[in-house]
Specification:
The protein is an alpha/beta fold. The radius of gyration is 20 Å and the shape is globular. The termini are far apart.
């Protein structure tokens, strides 16, 4: 490299405005006023509707005389017909904005509902990258989990119920107008979900770091998120209500989200979208199951990047061969899972041999596969799944 040649490729980075910190949820009313909104649609799920966080926001809206409508039928893996229902309620109630309170499912459904109340056709027409034409209504996100990072990403993941797979919709239009990230919301999250969503965030960080779309900007967020999750998650598993640990997990999720939103993801998410949509399995669980196996598959194509992750975790790799370096990283993930009591495997999902073809087909066509360190063939994905079930 000559002295006049740049070390860095051209990169772009997009992120929404966000507020992070304890009691930041109380800022919702301020942004309703700042945006001059008059009738938001509150999107949530039935479990959260009666929870303290939703009640907090309703109280804020009522305190400033803002009327609102509610949609609370979002399922764990949001469906295309739920999106259509949300858009119809927004239109019929003359809502001028959206407030999403919940995890990734709620936020993705709210985003997709925003697409459809302003754009023609079906949500299926917007699968892929940059297909949204008309601007969406303003959206305020209040995440209540620490994994999906839907509140800071350019992604929305919606299940195509006819073909039973998860569609990835990617567009800068999907960045929320404001994300209000209050770690205190995690105090009501069941421990099982806390662990699953944290492993989702870890997968975001791993995949964005080795992604073909990575940059020095996304790298710094990804590596910091990985270290923070490795340090904090075992502590949280023992003390899930410790607010300092929850702050660190929420911060790690935020950083991992900003990394993958701009670098995109890879084979773990491509298979997880296909598998989770077909079997209706929780997304974070699918990611956590697949992460170490995909590293085993990918390692030869991105050894340098994976080794950098190991070094950031404190491992000394000097003089080790490639097999041993890979083994160290994979074992570090398996050890983390053991520490936190996550012992679900692909075998536990009861995937039948007859289902492998359809899962592999959707996985190789998922947009996330495009930035995997290597583009696997349909046969390779089939073999990967068959070997692990």
């Amino acid at each position: 490299m000559s002295k006049n040649e740049s070390m860095y490729k051209i990169s772009k980075f997009a992120a929404p405005e966000f507020i992070f910190g304890i009691d930041s949820i109380d800022y919702v009313k301020r942004y309703i006023k700042n945006f001059s909104l008059t009738h938001p649609m509150v999107v949530t799920d039935s479990g959260l509707l009666s929870a303290s966080w939703a009640k907090n926001i309703f109280k804020q809206l009522e305190g400033i005389d803002i009327r609102y409508s509610i949609y609370d039928k979002v399922s764990e893996n949001p469906k295309d017909y739920e999106v259509e229902e949300i858009s119809k309620v927004i239109i019929n109630c003359n809502c001028d904005s959206i407030i999403a309170i919940g995890g990734g499912s709620v936020i993705d459904a709210a985003k997709a509902g925003g697409i459809m109340c302003a754009n023609p056709g079906s949500i299926r027409d917007y699968e892929g990258i940059d297909k949204i034409v008309h601007p969406m209504p303003p959206i305020i996100c209040v995440p209540t989990t620490c994994g999906s990072s839907a509140d800071v990403s350019q992604f929305a993941i919606i299940t195509n119920t006819d073909e039973r797979y998860k569609m990835a919709i990617v567009s800068k239009s999907l960045l929320p107008d404001i994300s209000i990230i209050d770690p205190k919301t995690l105090t009501t999250l069941p421990k099982e979900l806390l662990i699953a969503t944290s492993l989702d965030a870890l997968t975001h960080a791993f995949e964005s770091y080795v992604s073909l779309g990575s940059s020095p900007i996304t790298d710094m967020f990804a590596l910091k998120a990985i270290r923070l999750i490795f340090e904090t998650l075992p502590k949280v598993a023992k003390d899930p209500k410790n607010i300092n640990y929850l702050e660190d997990l929420m911060l790690a999720s935020l950083m991992a989200g900003m990394a993958f939103s701009n670098a995109s993801l890879g084979m773990v998410h491509a298979i997880a979208h296909s598998m989770g949509g077909y079997k209706d399995i929780r997304h974070g669980t699918c990611n956590a199951i697949l992460l170490d196996s995909v590293i085993d598959f990918n390692y030869v194509y991105a050894a340098y990047r994976y080794d950098k992750i190991s070094e950031s975790l404190g491992y000394v790799l000097e003089d080790l061969n490639e097999i041993d370096r890979k083994k160290i990283l994979i074992e570090s993930i398996m050890n983390l899972k053991n520490k936190i009591g996550f012992n679900i495997t692909l075998k536990d999902l009861q995937i039948k041999e007859s289902e492998i073809d359809i899962i592999a087909k959707h996985a190789v066509n998922d947009p996330c596969m495009l930035t995997n360190p290597v583009m696997p063939t349909f046969e390779e994905v089939k073999e990967f799944i068959a070997r692990n079930i």
